Amino acid sequence: MISKAASNAVVLVSRATLAVLIFDGFLCGILAVFFLPAYLGPIPFPVSALLAGVANVTLLFASRKVAEQSVAIASPLIAFFVAILVCMFGGPGGDVLLLADWRTAFLLLGGLVPPGILLFSWRLKTLTTPHATPLPGAHPRSSTGSASR
Fold first, then answer.
1. How far is the C-alpha of 39 from the C-alpha of 37, rounded, in Å?
2. Is the pLDDT of residue 52 over 90?
3. What pTM was estimated for this model as a whole?
4. How far apart are the C-alpha atoms of 36 and 98, rounded to whole Å?
5. Radius of gyration of the chain (CA)
6. What is the distance between the alpha carbons of residues 124 and 129, in angstroms, rounded to a whole number?
């Protein structure tokens, strides 16, 4: 049997871990934007978009270990998207980090679609799993208003 103090410590550690994972999702978004204009020789190759998708999937697996609610599990991905949105706004001098370019669309697709599919499959699995099966020999009670006349 776990004491209440130990249970509170477990909850505190899991919340702190989730907060670090949310920060990692935000940092992943910022770094993906910074490394988006990378080149592979003379060809622009946004490797950060591919790495962002892998990192976001990894963050979702880690957040699933410490959280149980769907919003808490998806919070690193939400933080990633918020970081991308922050980078889309112009700064005080009118500087914009993300321009209307194919690489920006590739970053959004590569960073959000694979973890989104993973979240969808997890949610679909929880919705389609059968609930607790009744005990053998147990009969459901009929309500008084449902008796046939």
1. 7
2. yes
3. 0.79
4. 9
5. 23
6. 9
